[in-house]
TrEMBL record:
Residues 159-191, 564-594 are annotated as: Disordered. Transmembrane segments: none annotated. InterPro entries: KH_dom, KH_dom_type_1, KH_dom_type_1_sf, Nucleotide-bd_a/b_plait_sf, RBD_domain_sf, RRM_dom. It comes from Esox lucius (Northern pike). Belongs to the RRM IMP/VICKZ family. This is RRM domain-containing protein. One of its GO terms (biological process) is regulation of translation. CDD domains: KH-I_IGF2BP1_rpt4 (cd22499), RRM2_IGF2BP3 (cd12630). GO terms for molecular function: RNA binding. It comes from the Eukaryota. Keywords: Cytoplasm, mRNA transport, Nucleus, Repeat, RNA-binding, Translation regulation, Transport.
Amino acid sequence: MNKLYIGNVSEEASAEDLETIFEQWKIPHSGPFLVKTGYAFVDCPDEKVAMKAIDILSGKVELHGKLLEVEHSVPKRQRSCKLQIRNIPPHMQWEVLDGLLAQYGTVEICEQVNTDTDTAVVNVRYAAKDQARQAMEKLNGFLMENFALKVSYIPDETVTTDAPPLGGGRRGFAPRGPPRSGSPGLGARPKLQSDVPLRILVPTQFVGAIIGKEGATIRNITKQTHSKIDIHRKENAGAAEKPITVHSTPEGCSSACRTIMEIMQKEALDTKFTEEIPLKILAHNNFVGRLIGKEGRNLKKIEVDTETKITISPLQDLTLYNPERTITVKGSIEACSRAEEEVMKKIRESYENDVAAMNLQSNLIPGLNLNALGLFPGGAPGMGPSMANAPPPGAQAGYSSFGGQGQPESETVHLFIPALAVGAIIGKQGQHIKQLSRFAGASIKIAPPDSIDTKQRMVIIAGPPEAQFKAQGRIFGKLKEENFFGPKEEVKLEAHIKVPSFAAGRVIGKGGKTVNELQNLTSAEVVVPRDQTPDENDQVIVKITGHFYASQLAQRKIQEILSQVRRQQQSKPSPRGEGPPHGDRPPLARPSRK
């Protein structure tokens, strides 16, 4: 892939002009420029140089008033199933990227390309041409965390005829045979970063030395260890310690950690600070039990192997919105570095096991971004209380069930809880419901009671799918914690979703087929009450009753049906003078954005 196509070339441009630009940006080329009307071709010495030219010039450098477009030159016969995606956020996680790519078809290969750029680059092969074409159209220019993706074809050398796609992939499944590069179990897949960032606590007085004059020291650490490092200086104002988050490969995290410990030790000597400076690692409580091991064996082994003393903060220090525990490691810098590697290895193994288990559930729930749920550290950088109001990572990623828009749309769900549980959900002076709202990124309100002796109260939750998942999940959990359900009793709640009256038939299906399939698939009870009178917005209620995962799956499936109806409504142009379809009913309106 050494040959480049240069587009949007002015008619006034010459080969000498292009040569001057390449020389100006120190981009070597191995052959003359072949200039045509409006475009040109040139050969580069190798693929790395070609990538450099694309990143430096494409859409950034003008020639005779026109911005040049530079990409790999791909003959039409080789424009098949392979794409290159550039300008991926450097700390993007594989699960988020995989989820985005999978919206457009079966991904057979997804490999990271080593480049000199700050952003990541991957080569992707889809199972079929039309899937690659759709991904190209939808993803080129797509915003992810303020980075506009750049997508182009790359030569598919395997293409000789219009043979059917390799593997004859079944719809929605990877082809049979060996797993694709980067699928679980292939350990050799290159990492954009570790899915679990390293979080450490450092004494506040050493933060300035770690940052350095005008940020020089932290920039050097970042560069040398290929890490992204966040120092949360504003977190816990006035606290004696500040958290630092390191995003990198496991090796990069360990290298950055060691460098930070060395800087603190030097600063302590310079300032005559005599107290011991232990290494303090922050870890989500979900993983700490497995780090300790049965009867403390895992932790004891790490202590013996690394010649350190390790203690862990008590459970009493945890809150619902601050689920991290502090792992304090005492020993020499060399010993602490070895202990950090072993501790984080255990933490990452626990995370990967939990994600695998969670995927069994989340794969069944369309439209959910696992990493935006905040259930695991990788999904909520920081995991501290100050991160509760941060938008979920990857929030810009679109979901196919929401029309491919850049931001998931807000939904409203009415969840019914025991009337006696209202106080527990609201909390003292409304503190719990406020924290829950910030944590989930949702609007949460409790409707007034229908009557004095009402046994149920309605909780109105408004927000995108991930916010619904987090808010409803915490409410289910709170009811169990506060013993509103027996120790062996499963928490089952009723939820209501409003749908346009003309779409209710699609939820029910012919002869009740769709609603019966929904119930069989989700284990939730799904009912569209007959003889409902549509409200002022021409909407009717769908009732969903079940345990948390059953309810979530049913909600997502119903939203998927509504999205299909929405797309069909939008694709039907109304002849001038005619009213909307179905008599005087308006087409399905998009919910307002959050």
